[in-house]
Design goal:
Blueprint (H helix, E strand, L loop, with lengths): L4 E6 L3 H4 L5 H17 L4 E6 L24 E5 L10 H7 L4 E7 L1 H14 L3 E10 L12 H14 L7 E4 L10
Parallel strand pairs: 1-2, 1-4, 2-3, 4-5, 5-6
């Protein structure tokens, strides 16, 4: 099967992006990837969460304007951190002939991580875009790891993760080449 990538844009919705660390930079990185994917004929699949604070049809549920899906682009609706669970994501990717997902979005340690790991279990290669995922903005001190450290931590995990028969890469948005395996 030939190498075929798809760009996944996970939960880049108004309410969630309003909580995000380095929101503008992350949106810009993903928007640049979307333009390059579309120019290369690579499918863009937008994943949209529905739940508390992001009820379907509300302004907070809508995808941020810079990343709103274009006509003909696939949108998958989910209700858990796993973009594959009880959705048509796997069927959509298979119908498009996808072999590798380029993962971006919100939130690093929840939906991004869970979806990337499930993609591996569904036999897709994974590119985690190092500057294309983010988490909630939180202070350096406190009970939780800082936003910046959480993002760096997950980028590090994926650099060293081994999954039999799968390719896993961590690339900056500028390094992503939609034509290369």
């Amino acid at each position: 099967m030939p190498h075929t990538a798809a760009l996944l844009v996970i939960d880049m919705q108004n309410t969630l992006v309003s909580l995000a660390f380095r929101a503008a930079e992350t949106v810009a990185a993903i928007a640049g990837l979307r333009e390059r994917a579309k120019a290369a004929g690579v499918p863009v699949v937008t994943i949209q969460h529905r739940g508390t604070g992001v009820e379907a049809g509300t302004e907070g549920w809508r995808i941020v304007p810079e990343l709103t899906p274009a006509a003909g682009e696939e949108t998958v609706h989910k209700t858990s951190a796993d973009s594959f669970l009880d959705t048509d994501l796997d069927d959509t990717l298979k119908a498009l002939g996808v072999t590798e997902v380029v993962v971006t979005g919100f939130a690093t340690e929840f939906c991004v991580d869970t979806t990337a790991r499930q993609a591996l279990s569904h036999r897709y290669d994974v590119v985690l875009v190092a500057d294309g995922h983010t988490t909630s903005d939180r202070p350096e001190s406190g009970e939780y790891i800082s936003s910046e450290r959480s993002i760096a931590h997950h980028n590090g995990i994926y650099r060293y993760m081994d999954f039999p028969g799968r390719s896993i890469r961590v690339l900056s948005s500028s390094e992503v080449d939609f034509a290369a395996p």
